[in-house]
């Protein structure tokens, strides 16, 4: 792998840009791998990367039915924060946020991490109490957050209306080192680094069956033929239920569409991320100037990749209430992704009823921020059978009643 | 927009008139059940990419609960039926079999 650098840019500029390499090799499946990861989204690719980097396991294939990063990783609104309530969440999300700080250097790929600050508005007394509690919890967890006053909110975000018709802004939970990153670059950066370690990333290769011998997995059937493996990792977000069905077990997961939209580009008006959970909407401004807006998830199971219109209407209504100046903005693009929701709104990183098969799913509406941390922990789980970051997120927590309840901490999709 | 006909009052209701209630035909477990049975009842779901039997409430209409058979990938509706059933009626299964040759007869299997 040729490294990217200022020197390389200068050299290529002088030689007509003919020396750039493909970022990753186009690979065809071998007959057998030590580890197969199903799903080349951020979580699958990060898992493969840390398997190689931390544990020296490089005989790895990542199988992707479409194109890499084309699932939720390429469809999300890229908010990164770690101001969760429960200790296991704070640990994995903060590990992840910290890895994002130096990910560009680590991968030698600019993921455009922008710690511009994340503000979660408190618009009811209940939310004020909830966020104060989260701020206290975060202080104990070593996650830097602060509850700020309406005056501070207005100072950071001058375009906001504090006295909304339904819900006035009563304060906010502020995480200064939260922010955004470029979603595609995160997938591409990990893919390039995996390929450089000799791993095969195989696109247009859908897994159609899982081969078993008793309670062991022996390999997978794909649209490019059968491939054998010693260990299998299922990292397919909204399609986890489909893969679990192939493997012969059930998951505490339901899949629903979650939508987002972006406006026409405008001059800079807001330099942080604002989330408004009570009215269901959140927004940031991309480097191109588009307002990036995320809304609510559908209430019923679906794989339609599109979502119900009334959620967009609700989201836009809420945003105009909070940011009246947006009312004449045209919307340019609008899309949906299929997210995997668990009962306690926390992810599953776990062993399964099959001995050598592991799942990483249930990130639902908020897993982009977790990609580096999840990959870090899940690689350890796959390599060693347990990992401090992931042990609390095992499947048996549902049977044993050890929920990691984050549904209150995150009332809105993000 | 998804439209389901409420079998109780006969209104063809838009989804904004309805409240979704998740997977249908889940048997409620009693106090003597094992942890595994409770886990299944409370959390484990089929979550199919295909035919789904599910509960709905006509929340902004007559207020009654009912069942629907719908494809989660296309939103094709195979029919609605009363809530007072423990499994999909034969008529609904026949309609699914007719339209979906790729689906097993009982897609819960
Ligand atoms: C609209 C929207 C906004 C969001 N906003 C945010 C946000 O602001 N912040 C945040 O932290 N999170 C956000 N999320 C959530 C985040 O996008 C996801 O949690 C995260 O990207 C999941 O990554 P993943 O790698 O697990 O899944 P994905 O990126 O979906 O990757 C899974 C891959 O598996 C592949 N696959 C599926 N089935 C098969 C098969 N049979 N064989 C082979 N491959 C298969 C898919 O094609 C896909 O590429 C948002 C999600 C959506 C939809
Ligand atoms: Zn009715």
From TrEMBL, chain A:
Similarity comment: family membership: Belongs to the SoxB family.
Protein name from the UniProt record: Sarcosine oxidase subunit beta
SUPFAM superfamilies for this protein: FAD/NAD(P)-binding domain
Transport keyword on record: no
Rhodanese domain location: 35-79
Organism: Citreimonas salinaria
Location in the cell: Cytoplasm
Flavoprotein in keyword set: yes
Entry GO CC: cytoplasm
Keyword entries, A-Z: Cytoplasm, FAD, Flavoprotein, FMN, Nucleotide-binding, Oxidoreductase
From TrEMBL, chain B:
Protein name per its UniProtKB record: Sarcosine oxidase subunit delta
Gene3D superfamilies from the UniProt entry: Folate-binding superfamily
Top-level taxon of origin: Bacteria
GO biological process: tetrahydrofolate metabolic process
Molecular function terms from GO: sarcosine oxidase activity
Residue ranges, compositional bias (Basic and acidic residues): 90-109
Species name: Citreimonas salinaria
Pfam family, one: SoxD
Region ranges (Disordered): 80-109
Family matches, as InterPro entries: SoxD (IPR006279), SoxD_sf (IPR038561)
